[in-house]
Amino acid sequence: MVEDNDRGFGRTPTKSTLLKIVILGEGGVGKSCLMSRFISNHFDDHSFHTIGVEFMNKTVEVNGKQYTLQVTFNFK
Predict the structure, then answer these.
(1) Burial level of 74, CB count in 10 A (0-12/13-18/19+)?
(2) Helices (H), the chain
(3) What is the distance between the alpha carbons of residues 49 and 30, in angstroms, rounded to a whole number?
(4) Angle, vertex CA 71, rays to CA 36 and CA 8, nearest 5
(5) Cα–Cα distance between 28 and 31 in angstroms, integer?
């Protein structure tokens, strides 16, 4: 019989853990630019105001474990 600790609660070693990040703030303060810079290392100095909600994902590895960051933002 396999112990719960050995099974990793149904997670396989290749599957990453999903972490959700929400960025809130007033319009025009740079939430989209911050998110774009973090996700794709790109800065667009001619960006327009975002209408609605935007989602972006990035997979990172920390201490040999993979994490998928789902970054969401909306204006406050």
Answers:
(1) middle
(2) 4-7, 31-40
(3) 9
(4) 135
(5) 8
Helix and strand counts by DSSP (H, E) for the chain: 2, 3
Neighbouring-strand partners of residue 65: 62
The encoded tokens of residue 16 equal: 């990453």
Does this model's pTM top 0.70?
no
Residues 10-19 as b/e (b if ≥16 CB within 10 A, e otherwise) read eeeeeeeeee
* Both tokens assigned to 71: 């970054």
**Rounded Cα–Cα distance for residues 17 and 67 (Å):** 5
Q: Is the pLDDT of residue 31 over 90?
A: no
Closest CA to 19 of 60, 74, 52: 60
